[in-house]
Amino acid sequence: MSQPAVPEPVDALRRIAFLLERSRAESRRVEAYRNAAKVILPLGEDEVRRRVRAGTLTELAGIGTSTSAVIEQAAAGRVPDKLAELEADVTGPLVEGGGTVRAALRGDLHSHSDWSDGGSPIEEMVASAMELGHDYLALTDHSPRLTVAHGLTADRLRRQIGVVDAINAHTGPSFTLLRAIEVDILDDGALDQEPDLLAALDVRVASVHSKLTMESPAMTRRMVAAVRNPLTNVLGHCTGRRVMPRAGDRGARSGGRARPPSTFDARAVFEACAETGTAVEINSRPERQDPPGELLTLAIETGCLFALSTDAHAPGQLDFLDYGCERAQRYGVPLERVVNTWPVQQLVDWASGGPPGS
C-alpha cells in the first residue's frame, strides 16, 4: 500500500483548516491553522526549516504549540498527526446519498469572501474550489444595503471585478471565477445595486435579508417583482429560514439562532421563476436546508430551474454541496434543470438573457 504524500507545511495547515471548516468546527480553531499558514508563507522554505531546527517557530506571532507541531512534522517529512487524524475522521461525503447529483455539478453559484462577510480572501476561496475540481465559482459578496455584512458599494464592487479579472488571467481556461453578487431584494422588489453595474456581472443571486416577517401578500409582491427583473438569475434561500443554530461560520456578523421561514405565495413566486427562467436556489448550508421539502417539490412541479449552491463563507464550506445534493436527489430534482451542471459558457449565456439550456 502506498504511503500518503507528505504535504509542505503551508499546505498541511491549509488542509487542516479546510477539514475543520467542512465539519463546522469553531471559528477560532480554524483561524489558528489558517493564520499560521499566512505567517509562514512569506518566510520561504529555508527560513521555516531554519526555525524548526532552532526551535524558534513559536516566537512568531500567530504560531502556537499545535500549529508549530504541524509545521515541524511536515518539515521533517511526516504527515502531521493532526492532519492524519482529521483525514481519518472527517473525509468522505458529509452525508449519504446525492452522489449522482454531486458528480454532475461543475461549480458553485453562491460564495462569499472577506470583501463582505466571508472569512477568507478571494484567492483562498478560488484555490479551494479548484482543489475540489470545480470548473467555476461565482463570487457573490453582498450588496451595500446589508451593512452588517460589509456589503459592497458600487465603487468596491468595481474594484472587486478588477480583482476577479486578474485572478482569471492567472488561472487560465481550466477555471473561471464568475463576476457575481448576492444582491439584496429591497422592500419594493427592486435590486440593491446600480443596474448598469449589475448588467456587467456574469451571475446575479437576489435574496431577501431584511423584514423577513413581512406580511405574506407584501412579501409575495416583493419576491415576484425581483424575480421578474431581467437582471435576476437566481432566487437565493427563498424562505430565509434557519433550522438550527449556525456553527463554524467564520466572519459571520449576525446571530446564529434558529429562525422561522418567511411566508409568501410560493406557487406565485415559483410560477414567476419558471416564466422568466430564474433559478430557485437549493441552499446547501445545513442550517438553512432552503427551500423546505414541500416547497422544493412545488418548484419541481412548477417547472423551475435550480441552482445548487453552498452559500459558503469559508473555503471548507464549499464542500457543503454534499448536503444540497442529497436533498436534490432525494426529492427528484431533474439534473438537466440544475444550471450549475452546465458548462460555463452555457451558464453565462443563460444568465445574460439567453434561453435556458441554449
Q: Can you describe this structure?
A:
With 358 residues, the protein is an alpha/beta fold. The chain is built from 14 helices and 7 strands. A 7-stranded parallel sheet has the order 1-2-3-4-5-6-7. Helix 8 (154-171) links the parallel strand 2 and strand 3. Helix 1 (9-22) packs antiparallel against helix 2, helix 1 runs parallel beside helix 5 and helix 10 (216-228) runs parallel beside helix 11. The longest helix is centred in the middle third of the chain and has 18 residues, at 154-171. The chain is elongated. Residues 249-255 have low confidence and may be disordered.
Question: Which helices and strands, and how do they pair?
Answer:
Blueprint: H1 9-22, H2 27-40, H3 45-54, H4 65-75, H5 81-90, H6 99-104, E1 107-108, H7 122-131, E2 136-139, H8 154-171, E3 176-184, H9 195-199, E4 203-207, H10 216-228, E5 234-235, H11 266-276, E6 279-283, H12 293-302, E7 305-309, H13 321-331, H14 344-351
**How far apart, in Å, are the first and last alpha carbons?**
47 Å
Q: Spatial order of the strands in the main sheet?
A: 1-2-3-4-5-6-7
| Quaternary organization | single chain
| Gyration radius from CA atoms, angstroms | 21 Å
Assign an overall shape.
elongated
Q: Roughly how much helix do the residues carry, as a percent range?
A: 40-55%
Number of contiguous helices = 14
Low-pLDDT ranges: 249-255
Strand portion: 5-15%
SSE order, one letter for each helix or strand: HHHHHHEHEHEHEHEHEHEHH
By DSSP, the count of extended strands is 7
Instruction: Please identify the structural class as seen in this structure.
Output: alpha/beta
Roughly what is the average pLDDT, rounded to an integer? 93
